Amino acid sequence: MKVKEVADLVGISVRTLHHYDEIGLLTPEDTTESGYRLYSQRNLSTLQQIFFFKELGFPLKKIKEIMESPGFNRNEALEVQRNMLLEKRKRMDAMITMIDKTIQDSKRELVMSEKEKFAGFDFSNNPYEQEARERWGDKAIDESNARINNMSKDEQKLLGKEFDAIYNKLAKLRNQSPESAEAQAAIEEWFVYLNKMGDYSLDVFKGLGQMYVDDERFTKNIDKYGAGLAEFMRDAMAVYADNKK
């Protein structure tokens, strides 16, 4: 199938398919002598897989990394994606039910208790903290929380200012090479800052950088300081960790 036929079939733009080709995410099986891209059945299966990952919030760079991994298994990926989508549907169904009840409550068709109005929300756990615990264990996180809790309000305020200063500095450097002297000096400040709150080894530091890109929640918050900052920090943290070992 030619690129226009594929675009019409799946409901995306030709430009999107060109972009996927340019970044090496979906390379057409063949190209005609006149330069037309030709997509095979295998290409279409790959495209479907890409869409499943996108629906679950994976960025394109991470999708490419996963699908190019030597251990990638399409059927296993489909099982994982199915389970993730079922969980997503479960959460969405709960939220829709609560919205429907809220509409009825606003129309005085039923009366919701104050507890029912917030039944679909759960702020009891910090998702960032939970994921960090799962990846690196409890020790570093517990030590970090304990140190912050033991600080005075002024010390915590000063720590917050230091955080902003480091991120603003890194944001100004994000278009430089992550290996540059300036970038490495700034990322070292981030490493020192983190170790004021916990015990972050070089391996943990490098893993944290990767998480900035893998998890769209982190990427979104970090990139508020400047588009592309999360990726820049990931690369700079990896260089720093490797050089310091």
From TrEMBL:
SMART domains reported for this sequence: HTH_MERR
CDD domains in the cross-refs? HTH_TipAL-Mta (cd01106)
Q: Which UniProt keywords apply?
A: Activator, DNA-binding, Transcription, Transcription regulation
Which PROSITE patterns does UniProt cross-reference here?
A: HTH_MERR_2
Name of this chain's protein = MerR family transcriptional regulator
Give the GO molecular function terms: DNA binding; DNA-binding transcription factor activity
Question: Does the keyword section mention Zinc?
Answer: no
Q: What PANTHER family would the database entry show?
A: HTH-TYPE TRANSCRIPTIONAL ACTIVATOR MTA, REDOX-CYCLING DRUG-SENSING TRANSCRIPTIONAL ACTIVATOR SOXR
Q: Which residue intervals define the domain HTH merR-type in the entry?
A: 1-69
Organism, as annotated: Virgibacillus phasianinus
What InterPro entries does its record include?
A: DNA-bd_dom_put_sf (IPR009061), MerR-type_HTH_dom (IPR000551), MerR_fam (IPR047057), TipA-like_antibiotic-bd (IPR036244), TipAS_dom (IPR012925)
